[in-house]
Description:
It is built from eleven helices and eight strands. The chain is α/β, with parallel strands linked by helices. It has one domain (2-238): Rossmann fold. It has an eight-stranded mixed β-sheet, sandwiched between helices. Strand 1 and strand 2 (15-21) form a beta hairpin. Helix 4 (67-74) packs antiparallel against helix 5.
Amino acid sequence: MKAVEQWNSERLYRPLTLARWGTFGTPVLVFPTAGGDAEEIERMHVVDACAPLIEAGRVKLYSCDSLAGRVMLTEEGSPEFRAAFLSAYQQAVRHEVLPAIWADCGGEMPVLVAGSSIGAFNSVAMVCRYPDVFAGAIAMSGTYGVEKHYPRWTEDLFFSSPLEFVPGMEGAALDVLRSRMIVLATGSGAWEDAGESWRMADVLGAKGIPNRVDDWGPDWPHDWQTWRAMLPQYLNEMA
């Protein structure tokens, strides 16, 4: 049921790990939190929370290392390096991780993306940047204004941040993105900032991109107990 593979990323120049749980069903790529690895969602019992859907053959969960999140948290290199690494990470997910998922599934198909905190940012960024290959996003407790982690704006950062590049989208990519659904789920308990989800929703809505903000209320903090409850509910709806 579980499989793990690792390779040296040709875009990131360091090892990149992809883990999988399940055998059949809709492929779902779950991004870790900021510095998390590919098996974080298993250690934090998110995989267990989704077990009924996995065992029923509804979904196959995948997760890959949050390498750009680690670079961001540790402030590795210059701001320009960190911004370029974020863009390269997104490209590695598209051109390395996604083909590995397709190979495991036996063919090309749209993949649903999900994640919490910085993982939510990654999920929205991927479906907005590559709407032709990602089916939609489940973004939980998202932090979308990543500019606070990058003191200087660069072109790489602009095209990696959906708050920045989505307002200028036009043409075929936008047409496809308008057929994708982005759920922005949040709590309003400890350490949560529901305003981040509304900020992202305003940008998406202005371009006619389907989305909704679900605020679970003050009993739900920015923590794993919230995301263990959220993910299976939304997977049951979207997968």
